[in-house]
Design brief:
alpha+beta; Endonuclease I-creI; 2 domains; four-stranded antiparallel sheet; 8 strands; 41% helix
């Protein structure tokens, strides 16, 4: 059954998640940065526990500088795969399945939590926020852009790099500039990742509310 929790988790996987098969085992995994994502990964583990009704552990992979959740769960695997999420490499044609349209804001919230970037730009002494999504999957970014536009949040998709460092595919960026867009994004989509929520609070306290 699709609900807000499933949609949010699907979005998280769009960014830093993966479905994989090893022998007879079906794995659902998601990774984060060891130094910056601990609070967010704890929130993600709690979310997954609610989705699957089983405990979830966050593993520290200090050698690789990352945190990882890796679950062998056939039912969860088949549910996510059944919603159009690919097994193995996500590829350039990745997009949000029609079945998730009723919860698409939750999908985007999860996607931004793992693959989004919240920057504070200094333009000749004037500071403004910029939100960015990055992906080799241009159709996915165009989907997100159109949903955001329908909710009054303006953004554009650009070619970020002609060749991604992980592959020969171009890397695309959805860029969203300005205070008004940031505030609307917070209201309509929200910041699931603690570090993004902290940046929003910092910018609001120092450059808006004064």
């Amino acid at each position: 059954m699709i609900n807000k929790g499933v949609a949010l988790f699907y979005g998280l996987l769009l960014g830093d998640g993966c479905l994989s098969k090893v022998g007879k085992h079906n794995f659902v995994s998601i990774v984060g940065n060891l130094k910056t994502d601990e609070m967010s990964m704890i929130k993600i583990s709690i979310l997954i526990e609610k989705v699957r009704n089983k405990p979830v552990k966050v593993y520290k992979r200090e050698k690789y500088g990352k945190l990882e959740i890796c679950i062998s769960d056939k039912s969860l695997f088949e549910m996510i795969n059944g919603l159009g999420f690919p097994i193995g490499k996500k590829g350039t044609n990745l997009c949000i399945a029609p079945a998730l349209q009723g919860f698409i804001k939750d999908v985007i919230s999860g996607y931004f939590a793992t693959d989004g970037c919240f920057l504070i730009i200094n333009n000749n002494g004037i500071k403004y926020p910029r939100l960015e999504f990055s992906s080799i999957a241009r159709p996915l970014l165009l989907q997100v852009r159109d949903v955001l536009r329908n909710n009054g949040i303006r953004g554009e998709v650009y070619v970020s790099h002609k060749k991604n460092f992980r592959s020969n595919n171009p890397l695309y960026r959805l860029q969203i500039n300005g205070k008004a867009n940031m505030i609307k994004f917070k209201r309509e989509i929200g910041f699931f990742n603690s570090k993004h929520a902290d940046k929003f609070a910092f910018f609001s306290d120092n450059f808006i509310n004064k």
